[in-house]
Amino acid sequence: MEWTPASDMLAMSLRSAIAIFAAAVVVVLPAGAFGAASVGSYEQVAWVRRAASNFVRDELRGDGASACSILNAPLRATRRHATCARRWNAHLATVLRERGSRTLLRADARAIPSARVVVHGDGASIALPDPLLSGASRFIWSENCWMLEG
Fold first, then answer.
1. Per-residue pLDDT reduced to its tens digit, 48-78
2. How far, in Å, are 14, 22, 23, 140, 142 from residue 9 at the CA level?
3. How far apart are the C-alpha atoms of 95 and 132, rounded to whole Å?
4. What is the DSSP letter of 27?
5. Would you place residue 40 in the very low, low, confident or very high pLDDT band (cuts 50, 70, 90)?
6. How far apart are CA 140 and CA 48, in angstroms?
7. DSSP letter at 29?
8. φ, ψ for residue 100 (rounded to 5)?
9. HEC profile for 73-141?
10. Strand partners, 139
11. How far apart, in Å, do the first and last CA atoms of the chain sit?
12. Residue ranges of domains in the chain
């Protein structure tokens, strides 16, 4: 191809379009999409995020029964004649009255879509501002889904 002023302008406008597109991608992607890469298959990471999202949503609603459905079996067991749902309803009623607890849960909910997830075999963890359970946000593959473990 022979150089002409028109071909030079076309090349410049193509480079400009690519630069604008690249800048737009950086703005549109969630925070942490480049730096904190997750480990595991896309499907596994998405499942862990969904389980974490469901758990935080259930906590914000004060729905102990639904929160229990995401807990690993040993955590769902009846203790001292109290079912998991009964214990979690009581726990959430107390926690959600505490100043700042809903703010922490909402911060977790906002962080989940871009949080670093590490899947290793039948275990997984998600890095959140406020850990989900017992100072950790660990999941285990059990009952054909990711369950939160303590």
1. 999 999 999 999 999 999 999 999 999 998 9
2. 9, 20, 21, 57, 59
3. 13
4. H
5. confident
6. 9
7. S
8. 85, -10
9. HHHHCCECCECHHHHHHHHHHHHCCCCCHHHHHHHHHHHHHHCCEEEECCEEEECCCCCCECCECEEEE
10. 124, 148
11. 66
12. 36-149
What order do you get walking across the sheet with 123-126 strand by strand?
A: 117-120, 123-126, 138-142, 145-149
**Chain position carrying tokens 């998600």:** 126
DSSP 36: S
138-142 and 117-120: which strand pairing? unpaired
The amino acid occupying position 39 is V
Q: Which residue has the tokens 């890095």?
A: 127
Structural element, H or E, at residue 59: helix 42-61
At position 21, the amino acid (one-letter code) is F
Q: Model pTM?
A: 0.73
Rg (CA), the chain: 22
